[in-house]
Design brief:
This protein has 21 helices and 13 strands. With about 450 residues, it is α+β, with helices and mostly antiparallel strands. The chain starts with a helix and ends with a helix. The structure holds adenosine-5'-triphosphate (ATP) and magnesium ion (MG).
């Protein structure tokens, strides 16, 4: 295995000082799968204070990032590396934190506290791959299997339930039968886990390659962390637009959206309101009038509980209530949208609409999908050609209007009017035309 040269250097320094040290966990797994790895963790038999002393003697800076858990971070020109002393976790009392950690001297004990066999391997050049729980075999078979008794492991730390389905999504692996059984049996324990930790795993899950299958198969787990979704797990939609029920449509739309967390969260939450807005007419056709706003209310509650970062929260809350508004392919219309929601907002909306359509009845969506392509091309052209769509881009500004005698709110109103005229093609965006127009209007 080839490991980052600075990690290799740290491992060699510690081993030369008489300790054991290995690359461990995710980076070994990713290397064996031929995937890139950006955080390389190191495990060592040296205690934190010893590690720090040895590395300092080699002019390597250390930061005490998690002394309580035996972790320090070494900082080199090539990056930073978490170095954790071999440890076992003490008793767990609340399904999330070990009471205390205990340092040990045998790597076997350290590997056995790790969550899944594929994450419980270590490597250094001296010993090669250390694989005591069949991790390599499970990697070959594409299986996620708990290290030890899955039921006990999920009771110790319920976050592992989210981690299991996250890896199933990201790596496109299956979960081994007993591990799967224990996931469903213990899912309620996720309520004891902090939402920050849950959100980290959920985010990775949503961006995974296999997200559709995982959301379908493990909906009951997702329902524990976002109970707002429970309402749409089994809602048929008898309309010509749909061939899937609301949940399957939701999962398809998540998968169809670009790998951008805000867009994928938007798709996950966009149709919750359908559970509350459904009506069936005399022909047996279902309608979901007004579901978008209801979805937005449930989305707000869910996002707040998950403590989603502001930037993502704002984008999702902007998109959910307008997810199926008409944009159009006409330049003027697109520029009006741009003036209201900005370039990023409109690009997001196009992606959301496309993902939504891709998850509907393909016989009904061809035109709409091709229109979205046209809208996108027009949008690109407007941006490329620098056509104005904000008051800022106008050839006059507030000061020009003040010198024409405008005051207070009138300034904003006039600028908005000018923009409207420019977008409609009734006025050229040059100072003279705009000012002439305003002067004429006064008389
Ligand atoms: P990623 O590629 O997303 O970083 P990872 O496997 O490296 O995946 P980390 O959260 O960085 O995941 O954790 C590093 C290692 O620590 C894991 O590979 C695993 O061995 C161990 N680990 C992490 N979280 C847990 C947990 N909750 N229970 C047991 N072991 C864990
Ligand atoms: Mg990692």
């Amino acid at each position: 295995m080839r490991i980052a040269s600075d990690a290799k250097m740290i491992i060699e320094i510690l081993e030369q000082a008489g300790y054991e040290a290995f690359a461990v966990g995710g980076c070994v797994r990713d290397f064996l799968m031929g995937r890139p790895c950006d955080d390389m963790d190191i495990t060592t038999s040296a205690r934190p204070a010893e590690t720090e002393k040895i590395l300092n003697n080699h002019q390597i800076k250390c930061i005490e990032t998690g002394l309580k858990h035996g972790t320090i971070t070494a900082v080199t020109d090539g990056g930073s590396f978490e170095i954790t002393t071999y440890r076992t976790d003490g008793a767990y009392t609340d399904n999330r934190h070990p009471e205390h950690v205990e340092f040990v001297t045998d790597i076997k004990e350290d590997l056995s506290r790790r969550d899944f066999t594929i994450n419980a391997m270590a490597y250094n050049d001296r010993a090669g791959i250390v694989d005591l729980f069949g991790g390599r075999d499970d990697l070959d078979k594409k299986i996620i299997r708990a290290v030890g008794d899955p039921d006990k492991r999920f009771k110790e730390d319920a976050l592992r339930i989210m981690r299991a389905i996250r890896f199933a999504s990201v790596l496109s692996f299956d979960i081994e039968t007993q591990t799967k059984k224990a996931i469903f049996n213990n899912k309620e324990l996720l309520k004891n886990v902090s939402y920050e930790r849950i959100f980290t795993e959920l985010s990775k899950l949503l961006l995974g390659e296999n997200v559709f299958n995982v959301l379908m198969e493990y909906r009951e787990v997702i329902g524990v962390v976002i109970p707002e979704l429970l309402a749409i797990f089994h809602i048929p939609q008898n309309t010509k637009w749909h061939i899937y029920d609301v949940w399957e449509h939701t999962c398809k739309s998540v998968e169809a959206a670009p790998k951008d967390l805000a867009l994928r969260l938007t798709m996950l939450l966009h149709d919750i309101g359908k559970a509350y807005a459904k009506t069936t007419d005399e022909n047996g056709t279902d309608h979901f009038k007004g579901h978008q706003k209801i979805s937005a209310e449930y989305a707000r509650t869910a996002l707040k509980r998950l403590k989603v970062p502001n930037e993502i929260y704002d984008r999702v809350m902007f998109l959910v209530p307008i997810h199926d508004m008409h944009i159009g392919t006409d330049r003027k219309k697109i520029k009006k949208w741009l003036s209201k929601v900005g370039e990023k907002g409109l690009r997001d909306l196009i992606e959301v609409k496309r993902a939504d359509k891709l998850a509907q009845n393909p016989e009904m969506t061809e035109r709409e999908l091709s229109n979205l392509g046209v809208t996108q091309k027009e949008l690109d052209r407007i941006i490329r050609e620098g056509e104005p769509f904000t008051v800022k881009a106008l050839a006059v500004n507030g000061y020009d209007l003040i010198s024409l005698g405008c005051r207070g709110e009138e300034i904003g109103e006039k600028l908005a009017l000018l923009l409207q005229k420019v977008i409609d093609g009734e006025l050229e965006n040059d100072k003279e035309s705009l000012i002439t127009y305003l002067k004429q209007k006064e008389v």
